[in-house]
């Protein structure tokens, strides 16, 4: 991987193209109350110009998606990975019955770019374009700005870093990716989402009873972990993780650190093997669980 490209991306000289992400607009007097009943975080905590990360769950607490919510003028905007466009359109609109809420798919109406808050001023990448909307957000484990531009905007696009750069950055920061590290069988706390995407104080939402019970129990049975090895070949994924010949989890994402050369893997391990310093094998390579 090109270490210069990686450094330029982290510095904010390059952007991530998120335009393929699914996007929805919620309007109507009940939009905040309705959306609060569908996701794990508290929409009432949204501040102008900022975003809120949340999971969408079923009644059993299993994830149906991961989203970000943005405040707008007389509207709330929601984004999610593109693979969730069809399923979340159905899921998030399913319970609109007597509510004063309208949900509109606006995926194709907007471009979406992410620019890290690196050493280069974010204003160089369209955050001051007259037709843009900008929001502070954490993506890939770093703070930055999401820039929304109308699909027909004449404003110049930023220079983009390839997806592999952003994938490496999120692995370094132990950020799970939908469809790779988490899916419809995942419980949000398994991905450490209680740290950034769950409110335990806001009241009822779909899956809330299970999520609250997991908190009262104090743990889940498996956890996302970052594994490190000084060097080695990136394994074919998914791959079994083993300890003393016993399968203890599955590795789902991997990269070589663009600067240190370390081999990094994201894996979901049985909880008793998730402590920092634990040795885990993937094929012939021995990894150490990182903090």
Strand order within the widest beta sheet: 11-12-13-10-15-14
Mean pLDDT: 94
Fill in the CATH topology of the largest domain.
Gyrase A, domain 2
Element-by-element helix/strand order:
HEEHEEEHEEEEHHEEEEEE
Task: Describe what you observe in this structure.
The chain has 291 residues and is of the alpha+beta class. It folds into 2 domains: 3-172, Probable tRNA modification gtpase trme, domain 1 (Gyrase A, domain 2), CATH 3.30.1360; 221-291, Elongation Factor Tu (Ef-tu), domain 3, CATH 2.40.30. It has 5 helices and 15 strands. The chain has helices spanning 3-11, 31-36, 85-93, 163-172, 208-217; strands spanning 16-17, 22-27, 52-57, 63-72, 75-80, 102-105, 110-116, 133-139, 142-150, 222-229, 239-243, 246-256, 263-270, 279-282, 285-289. The strands form 3 sheets. It has a 6-stranded antiparallel sheet with strand order 11-12-13-10-15-14. It has a 5-stranded antiparallel sheet with strand order 3-4-5-2-6. Strands 1-7-9-8 form a 4-stranded antiparallel sheet. Strand 4 and strand 5 form a beta hairpin. It is globular and about 55 Å long. The chain starts with a helix and ends with a strand. The model has no long low-confidence stretch (mean pLDDT 94).
């Amino acid at each position: 991987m090109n270490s210069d490209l990686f450094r330029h991306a982290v510095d904010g000289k390059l952007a991530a193209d998120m335009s393929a992400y699914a996007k929805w607009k919620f309007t109507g007097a009940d939009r905040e109350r309705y959306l609060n009943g569908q996701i794990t975080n508290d929409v009432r905590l949204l501040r102008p110009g900022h975003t809120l990360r949340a999971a969408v769950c079923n009644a059993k607490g299993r994830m149906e998606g991961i989203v970000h919510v943005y405040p707008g003028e007389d509207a709330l905007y929601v984004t999610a990975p593109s693979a969730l466009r069809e399923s979340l359109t159905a899921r998030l609109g399913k319970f609109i019955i007597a509510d004063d809420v309208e949900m509109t798919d606006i995926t194709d109406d907007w471009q979406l770019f992410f620019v890290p808050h690196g050493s280069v001023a974010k204003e160089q990448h369209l955050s001051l374009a007259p037709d843009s909307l900008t929001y502070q957000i954490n993506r890939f484990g770093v703070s930055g700005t999401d820039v929304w531009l109308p699909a027909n905007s004449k404003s110049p696009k930023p220079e983009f870093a390839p997806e592999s750069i952003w994938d490496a950055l999120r692995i370094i920061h132990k950020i799970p990716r939908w469809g790779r590290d988490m899916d419809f069988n995942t419980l949000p706390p398994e991905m450490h989402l209680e740290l950034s995407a769950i409110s335990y104080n806001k009241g009822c939402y779909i899956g809330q009873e299970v999520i609250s019970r997991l908190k009262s129990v104090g743990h889940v049975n498996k956890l996302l972990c970052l594994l490190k090895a000084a060097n080695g070949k990136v394994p074919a994924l998914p791959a079994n993780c083993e300890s003393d010949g016993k399968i203890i989890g599955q590795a789902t994402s991997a990269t070589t650190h663009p600067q240190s050369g370390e081999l990094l893997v994201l894996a979901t391990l049985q909880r008793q093997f998730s402590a920092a310093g634990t040795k885990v094998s993937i094929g012939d390579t021995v990894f150490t669980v990182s903090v």
